[in-house]
Specification:
The chain has about 180 residues and is an alpha/beta fold. The protein is built from six helices and six strands.
Length: about 180
């Protein structure tokens, strides 16, 4: 029997088989959670909408998938990287969510609302040397929510810390 369901959203110009979301899925499955990694590459390619594709449609896709998971029963945990973290946090305001795992989350996404999230157990992983999203704002965002925070000596892709990120996700899941 599953402990719950994790929906893991990849970042812009990435995909559902990306290194980080794959590592998170493996960590969750090892703990008895089911996982799902939606594919947003078709929406990311819509450069006529914005330079990061169709973000509102990405959010709507996640809301539909998460809503279906909630209807099947059991707790839902949302997680993602960069743009995937942003839509996970925003979706948590509209879908019952047990926990959030946000890697290098943007605080703003063009005309979309500022980063916000449901008051659920939240872990944030960020990089000191993130060349896209400065660490200071994310640290303050996490502090204001008393979120778990792991800041690593890495860049936006967190490629040197995939294992540490997966361990942090496992710790969040074990705490739920």
């Amino acid at each position: 029997m599953s402990r719950g369901h994790c929906i893991l959203s990849h970042g812009f110009e990435s995909g559902p088989d990306a290194t980080k979301v794959t590592a998170l899925a493996q960590a969750a499955e090892a703990l008895g959670w089911t996982t799902e990694r939606p594919d947003y590459t078709d929406l990311d390619a819509r450069s006529e909408v914005s330079r990061v594709g169709d973000v509102p449609a990405r959010l709507q896709r996640l809301l539909r998938i998460a809503g279906e998971a909630v209807e099947r029963g059991g707790p839902v945990v949302l997680g993602g990287s960069s743009l995937g973290a942003y839509i996970s946090a925003i979706a948590s305001l509209q879908v019952p969510t047990r926990g959030l795992f946000l890697m290098v989350p943007p605080l703003q996404m063009g005309p979309m609302p500022a980063l916000d999230a449901a008051p659920v157990p939240t872990s944030v992983v960020h990089a000191w040397h993130d060349e896209i999203i400065p660490a200071a704002g994310v640290i303050e965002w996490a502090r204001a929510r008393s979120a778990r925070l792991l800041v690593l000596d890495d860049s936006h892709r967190l490629s040197a810390h995939v294992d540490a990120t997966a361990r942090a996700f496992a710790e969040l899941l074990e705490s739920l």
